[in-house]
Amino acid sequence: MTRRVAVVGGGCSGLACIKCCLDEALEPVCFESSDDIGGLWRFKEDPESLRPSIYYSVIINSSKEMMCFSDFPIPAHFPNFMHNSLIMDYFRLYADNFHLTKHIRFNTKVLQVKQRSDFSKSGQWDVETENKDGKKERHIFDAVMICIGHHCDPNMPLQDFP
């Protein structure tokens, strides 16, 4: 029996988790609340409420050799310090190469994750989701990976910078 793993978030960590699950013959189901991969690295002119966004001109401050996935080098023709649009291009190449997007449910929020009543015996989790149409579903998983990053609550110190 294949063990099912919920992956919450389709940014760089979520993509890597989906790939690792597949490498271990697990069945990942990724829930991404937006309509695309990339998480924080996906620039949006008008960011959604409670979703962080980089600004248009962001260039990563780590070299491509240090920030790439270990099993998928960044293309040689990409610059050493990449603009955010190239980081998104790289994420898309990674996702396409390993066929990751077929495991992602876009526009699906995770409302709740909790241990099942028989968790001490089964080790399983109840996961409640909601799609963009408001339809709620309950799922059972053998494991859960939370990959939402640490920038999910925007920090806007407007009182310090009028």
TrEMBL record:
InterPro entries in the record: FAD/NAD-bd_sf, Flavin_mOase, Flavin_mOase-like, FMO-like
Cell location: Microsome membrane
Enzyme class: oxidoreductase
Gene3D superfamilies the UniProt entry points to: FAD/NAD(P)-binding domain
Cofactor(s) of this protein: FAD
Coiled coil: none
Signal peptide extent: none
EC code: 1.-.-.-
Pfam families from the UniProt entry: FMO-like
Any GO MF annotation of the entry: NADP binding
Keyword tags: Endoplasmic reticulum, FAD, Flavoprotein, Membrane, Microsome, Monooxygenase, NADP, Oxidoreductase, Transmembrane, Transmembrane helix
Source taxon at top rank: Eukaryota
Major site of localization recorded for this protein: membrane
Entry's family note: Belongs to the FMO family.
PANTHER family: DIMETHYLANILINE MONOOXYGENASE (PTHR23023)
Protein name per its UniProtKB record: Flavin-containing monooxygenase
